[in-house]
């Protein structure tokens, strides 16, 4: 794997490979082996042009647990604020010896540009680009679903037979897009639930069912309900009902959680707008996998960095090195 730019073009076998290597990584962490020597001598640059808590820290933790050197770059306080271009910024980091660049950018397609422009030779991992994709979020979501439904060791399994409802601000959500492609590639059925104004125009080309009524969608007994953050920073006010109306019709609260089958899980990529798309009792309920998703994110990002920088899947390599 040379880059990880999206899930739309990620083959089923490559997706399963990442999830299976993530299982290996998680096994080592659960045995309290915090650090593997696998990427010693490699440098990972976290290049963040947009804010992040989970993704940035998770990639940093993942790289450090594989013994890579990590350089954190935030556009705020850098020469980007003096007008420096993406090309010059990336080439500067390449000159400092980057082997992999993890990039989050407000422009859809920026990671693809970086990977294909010839400006740098490093591998590129998309950590979220505009409203386009957030592939490692979808991979950690799929990993979480697989573990919850198929047990601790679910290596090799896809998600066939499972039904996931993705609810909320689909229009602006790169998490929704990456999940639609990945979950359906892995055999799951996906329903999108949203106000009509927050459904993208090109959705008829997506392999999903559309619903506008959350209670009707819940009545279909989805295995997982994935709530999305309302992206007020990208929102055109004309598209958005009042917060009160949105919360009443499309928010997940305790009553809606209680209407789900007992095995169904409640997901959210974070950060959450508590009281808007999800109530505090839904977010903190025993059905919620929010913190599990965060923890799984480190294993999944270790797997992605490993596969980009060290190549072959470790046939129990992680375990061997940990001995
Ligand atoms: N889920 C997610 O991308 O969170 P951050 O914006 O905190 O990285």
Automatic annotation (TrEMBL):
<feature type="binding site">
    <location>
        <position position="229"/>
    </location>
    <ligand>
        <name>L-aspartate</name>
    </ligand>
</feature>
<dbReference type="GO" id="GO:0016597">
    <property type="term" value="F:amino acid binding"/>
</dbReference>
<keyword id="KW-0808">Transferase</keyword>
<dbReference type="GO" id="GO:0044205">
    <property type="term" value="P:'de novo' UMP biosynthetic process"/>
</dbReference>
<feature type="binding site">
    <location>
        <position position="137"/>
    </location>
    <ligand>
        <name>carbamoyl phosphate</name>
    </ligand>
</feature>
<comment type="subunit">
    <text>Heterododecamer (2C3:3R2) of six catalytic PyrB chains organized as two trimers (C3), and six regulatory PyrI chains organized as three dimers (R2).</text>
</comment>
<comment type="similarity">
    <text>Belongs to the aspartate/ornithine carbamoyltransferase superfamily. ATCase family.</text>
</comment>
<comment type="pathway">
    <text>Pyrimidine metabolism; UMP biosynthesis via de novo pathway; (S)-dihydroorotate from bicarbonate: step 2/3.</text>
</comment>
<feature type="binding site">
    <location>
        <position position="54"/>
    </location>
    <ligand>
        <name>carbamoyl phosphate</name>
    </ligand>
</feature>
<feature type="binding site">
    <location>
        <position position="270"/>
    </location>
    <ligand>
        <name>carbamoyl phosphate</name>
    </ligand>
</feature>
<dbReference type="GO" id="GO:0005829">
    <property type="term" value="C:cytosol"/>
</dbReference>
<dbReference type="InterPro" id="IPR036901">
    <property type="entry name" value="Asp/Orn_carbamoylTrfase_sf"/>
</dbReference>
<feature type="binding site">
    <location>
        <position position="55"/>
    </location>
    <ligand>
        <name>carbamoyl phosphate</name>
    </ligand>
</feature>
<dbReference type="GO" id="GO:0006207">
    <property type="term" value="P:'de novo' pyrimidine nucleobase biosynthetic process"/>
</dbReference>
<dbReference type="InterPro" id="IPR002082">
    <property type="entry name" value="Asp_carbamoyltransf"/>
</dbReference>
<keyword id="KW-0665">Pyrimidine biosynthesis</keyword>
<feature type="domain" description="Aspartate/ornithine carbamoyltransferase carbamoyl-P binding">
    <location>
        <begin position="2"/>
        <end position="146"/>
    </location>
</feature>
<dbReference type="InterPro" id="IPR006132">
    <property type="entry name" value="Asp/Orn_carbamoyltranf_P-bd"/>
</dbReference>
<dbReference type="GO" id="GO:0006520">
    <property type="term" value="P:amino acid metabolic process"/>
</dbReference>
<dbReference type="GO" id="GO:0004070">
    <property type="term" value="F:aspartate carbamoyltransferase activity"/>
</dbReference>
<feature type="domain" description="Aspartate/ornithine carbamoyltransferase Asp/Orn-binding">
    <location>
        <begin position="161"/>
        <end position="308"/>
    </location>
</feature>
<feature type="binding site">
    <location>
        <position position="104"/>
    </location>
    <ligand>
        <name>carbamoyl phosphate</name>
    </ligand>
</feature>
<dbReference type="InterPro" id="IPR006130">
    <property type="entry name" value="Asp/Orn_carbamoylTrfase"/>
</dbReference>
<protein>
    <recommendedName>
        <fullName>Aspartate carbamoyltransferase</fullName>
        <ecNumber>2.1.3.2</ecNumber>
    </recommendedName>
</protein>
<comment type="function">
    <text>Catalyzes the condensation of carbamoyl phosphate and aspartate to form carbamoyl aspartate and inorganic phosphate, the committed step in the de novo pyrimidine nucleotide biosynthesis pathway.</text>
</comment>
<feature type="binding site">
    <location>
        <position position="271"/>
    </location>
    <ligand>
        <name>carbamoyl phosphate</name>
    </ligand>
</feature>
<dbReference type="Pfam" id="PF00185">
    <property type="entry name" value="OTCace"/>
</dbReference>
<feature type="binding site">
    <location>
        <position position="82"/>
    </location>
    <ligand>
        <name>L-aspartate</name>
    </ligand>
</feature>
<feature type="binding site">
    <location>
        <position position="174"/>
    </location>
    <ligand>
        <name>L-aspartate</name>
    </ligand>
</feature>
<dbReference type="InterPro" id="IPR006131">
    <property type="entry name" value="Asp_carbamoyltransf_Asp/Orn-bd"/>
</dbReference>
<feature type="binding site">
    <location>
        <position position="134"/>
    </location>
    <ligand>
        <name>carbamoyl phosphate</name>
    </ligand>
</feature>
<dbReference type="Pfam" id="PF02729">
    <property type="entry name" value="OTCace_N"/>
</dbReference>
């Amino acid at each position: 794997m040379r880059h990880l730019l999206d899930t739309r073009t990620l083959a089923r076998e490559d997706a399963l490979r990442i999830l299976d290597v993530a299982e290996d990584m998680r096994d080592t962490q659960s045995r309290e082996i915090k650090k593997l020597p696998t990427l010693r001598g490699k440098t990972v640059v976290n290049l963040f042009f947009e804010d992040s808590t989970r993704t940035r820290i998770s990639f940093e933790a993942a790289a450090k647990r594989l013994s890579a050197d990590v350089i954190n770059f935030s556009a705020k306080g850098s020469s980007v604020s003096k007008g420096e271009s993406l090309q010059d910024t990336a080439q500067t980091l390449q000159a400092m010896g980057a082997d992999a660049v993890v990039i989050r950018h407000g422009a859809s397609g920026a990671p693809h540009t970086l990977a294909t422009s010839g400006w740098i030779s490093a591998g590129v991992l998309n950590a979220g680009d505009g409203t386009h994709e957030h592939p490692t979020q979808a991979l950690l979501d799929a990993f979480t679903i697989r573990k919850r439904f198929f047990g601790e060791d679910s290596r090799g399994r896809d998600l066939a037979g499972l039904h996931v409802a993705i609810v909320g601000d689909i229009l602006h959500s790169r998490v929704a897009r990456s999940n639609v492609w990945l979950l359906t590639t892995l055999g799951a059925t996906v329903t999108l639930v949203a106000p009509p104004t927050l459904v993208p125009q090109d959705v008829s080309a997506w392999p999903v069912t559309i619903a506008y009524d959350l209670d009707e969608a819940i009545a279909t007994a989805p295995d997982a309900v994935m709530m999305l953050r309302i992206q007020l920073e990208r929102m055109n006010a004309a598209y958005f009902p009042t917060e009160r109306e949105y919360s009443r019709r499309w928010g997940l609260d305790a009553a809606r959680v209680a209407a789900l089958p007992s095995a169904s899980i409640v997901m959210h990529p974070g950060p959450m707008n508590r009281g808007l798309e999800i109530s505090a009792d839904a977010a903190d309920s025993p059905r919620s996998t929010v913190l599990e998703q965060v923890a799984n994110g480190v294993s999944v990002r270790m797997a992605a960095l490993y596969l980009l920088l060290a190549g072959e899947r470790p046939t129990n390599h992680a375990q061997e090195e940990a001995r």
